[in-house]
Amino acid sequence: MKKIITILIFVSAALPSTKSIAQGCSDAGFCTIGNLAARADSLHTTRHQLKLILPIGVGDEDVFVFSPAIEYNLQLSAKWIVQGKLTTNYATGDLGSAVGLGDVFLSATHLFNPSAKWKTSATLGAKLPLNQGNLKEGNRSLPMQYQSSLGTIDVIAGIAIASHHWQFAAGLQQPLTGINRNNFLPVYWDDSVANNYPPTNDFNRKGDLLFRSGYTFSAHQKWRFNGGLLGIYHLGEDTYIDANISTKPIPIKGSKGITLNATAGINYQVNKKIGIGISGGVPLVVRDVRPDGLTRSFVFSPEISIQF
Amino acid sequence: MRNLFLFVLLVSFVACKKDTDAPTAALSETIDTTAQLLASGSFENGPYGTVTGRGKVFKNFNGSYSVVLDSFSTNNGPDLYVYLSKQAMPVDFIVGGKLKSTNGKQVYDLAEMPDLSQYKYICIHCKAFNHLFGFALLK
Predict the structure, then answer these.
(1) Who among A128, A130, A188 is closest to B91 (CB)?
(2) Which of A147, A169, A269, A294 stands the most exposed, by the fewest C-beta atoms within 10 Å?
(3) Based on the number of CB atoms within 10 Å of its own CB, is A269 exposed (0-12), middle (13-18) or buried (19 or more)?
(4) CB contact, 8 Å: A207 with chain B?
(5) Looking at this predicted complex, what is its ipTM?
(6) Is residue A48 within 8 Å of residue A71, measured between CB atoms?
(7) Searching chain A, which residue's CA lies closest to the CA of residue B50?
């Protein structure tokens, strides 16, 4: 175990320390769902897998974020896997602190040709919020950087093709409910610090497209490494409402566009039942404005999985 | 897994529970005929409402102040309040009271004496969700 901890510390230190983004900058959740997740995620071959993920990161305006999540995978057959995931979040920064449940992710993945060299699969899922994206400090709404959920019900769909080494995936995460209940406007805060955060009163987040390519290799029977590119295209400009400016939704300029990340992950299979890993990424191209609060300038994301 | 579904359903139910909407019976409240009209303005729609009628501020004979909604109509919503505000979307405001009805003439007594050079708006505002239904710019 001491050796494992030493290796994990070494790996985390080796990951870029200034612009490392957990599972990709601007990830609204779908980057780790079903066949859209990085390949090293799919090590398990047993019927059940339980995973604990413990990301610690720093977001915009140096907001410290700790987002523990628990994930359960059930291999129903050679062709079907269902997945459930529960996220939580603690955030603290210069406007206060907030803690709360995040979202429940439910998905099903169908593998069309499990015995083929190039396996194709499709994932369909949903993100169900456990709050409305309006956690408060006192009676004032906090910016999205502090929120434990985006506050919307989203549908997630993805397709992937993968060989022993390569993975290519494309996906869509589309909010169905559109506007969340966040009420953050800087003017509500008697604090100039609030002006550093983009206004998100009645925040309406647009959908995202995902493109992932990755390469996985095993340096040892127990070690598995993967690296790749993760692109997320935000399909439109997000909007908010400030009736003192306009009675119509106000587009947030610069919130539409692509985020491109280089990603990396390492997994170590401790024994037949237990695996541990770290994942991370470096943004190569980012959107000008990311009012959803999903950006991380630094993250350390260890995880442990149990197969049974 | 079944328990998880039940939990999600319970959370969804609680999240969807609607706050109390305003009464809809048309009112015809009156104000002292000696009251002095200080300012008035026509209602305009906000991002979340369709509001018509006029908003007025009176100084009463006894020195108190009242906000009057005249020929008033709004679509209904939860937790609606009448504010006298410095901004169309309330940031600094005086609470007139919970909206008595979505229709008719209604009077709200003010607890404070407003400086009408600053408090230029009468707002119909959903407090629970911070949604502006409509506002009248006082002139």
Answers:
(1) A188
(2) A269
(3) buried
(4) no
(5) 0.74
(6) no
(7) A247
Collect all residues of chain B within an 8 Å Cβ-Cβ radius of residue A86.
Answer: 4
What is the full DSSP assignment across A10-37? HHHHHS-SSS--TTSTT--SGGGSGGGS
A–B interface: beta-carbon pairs under 8 A: 39
Q: Can you tell me the distance from the alpha carbon of A177 to that of B72, in angstroms, rounded to the nearest whole number?
A: 32
Handedness of CA A100, A103, B17, A143 (dihedral sign): positive
Q: What sign has the CA pseudo-torsion A213, A298, A68, B5?
A: negative
Query: Cβ(B4)–Cβ(B11) under 8 Å?
Result: no
pTM exceeds 0.90 for this model: no
Amino acid at A154: D
Q: What is the pLDDT of residues A90-115, one digit of tens each?
A: 999 999 999 999 999 999 999 999 88
User: Which has the minimum average pLDDT: A115-124, A140-149, A272-281?
Assistant: A272-281
B47 with A243: Cβ contact below 8 A = yes
Q: Are A185 and A161 in contact (CB under 8 A)?
A: no
Instruction: Inspect the interface and report whether the beta carbons of B4 and A132 lie closer than 8 Å.
Output: no
